[in-house]
Amino acid sequence: MTEPPEPDAPAPPRPPVPQPVRVSWYLWIAACVVMVSGFGYSLADEPRVVSLMLEQPRDPRVTAAQVSAGVHASLWQFLVGAVVFALLFLLFAWKAQDGTRSARSVLTVLAGATIVFQAVIYPNWVKVAACALVVAATACLYLPGARPYFPKLPKR
């Protein structure tokens, strides 16, 4: 007959969150606010975006009203996408504060995707600032003071 499993020993206390990881958390928060603001700024600057789109070569069957409606819809979609990315940033940055190595990896991939989209989709100075904050927040997670906080998984 097998014995019931013994209760697990208490987990060893977590080391304190290193300064670079803590700084990264605040940079992620700032990046989220600035990124969403950048897409909000694009939405507020819709007439300029529409005029830029109308200057581009297009099919003559597409009217200015259709271009305007398409830009309006796409700006709202990008704003919603920015909010979703901001929530993902906050979720994984929170997990990174716990020392979760995979959260750091996910943040790195999300940062790369964000930089590409920020630079391609109606760039403005606010989005450039968001990119700078994203790069700084990601870099903090890889500083020498933060690396030991994200241990490698043991091999099976």
The gist of it:
The chain has 156 residues and is mainly alpha-helical.
Cα distance, first to last residue?
28 Å
Number of strands: 0
Strand content: under 5%
Task: Give the % helix.
Answer: 55-70%
Task: Count the domains.
Answer: 1
Shape: elongated
The tally of helices reads: 5
Q: What value does the Rg take, in angstroms?
A: 22 Å
Q: SS-based structural class? A: mainly alpha
Spell out the helices and strands N to C. Answer: HHHHH
Task: Round the mean pLDDT to the nearest integer and report it.
Answer: 89
* Low-confidence spans: none
Reported for the largest beta sheet, the result is: none
Protein name: Magnesium-transporting ATPase (P-type)
Organism: Amycolatopsis magusensis
Transmembrane segments: 23-44, 75-94, 106-122, 128-146
Keywords: Membrane, Transmembrane, Transmembrane helix
Q: How does this model look, in words?
A:
- It is a single chain.
- The chain is an all-alpha fold.
- The protein contains five helices and no strands.
- It has one domain.
- Helix 2 crosses helix 3.
- This is Magnesium-transporting ATPase (P-type).
- Keywords: Membrane, Transmembrane, Transmembrane helix.
List keywords for this structure.
single chain, 156 residues, 5 helices
SSE arrangement:
Blueprint: H1 19-44, H2 46-55, H3 64-97, H4 101-120, H5 125-140
Helix pairs in contact: 1-3, 1-5, 2-3, 3-4, 4-5
Protein name: Magnesium-transporting ATPase (P-type)
Keywords: Membrane, Transmembrane, Transmembrane helix
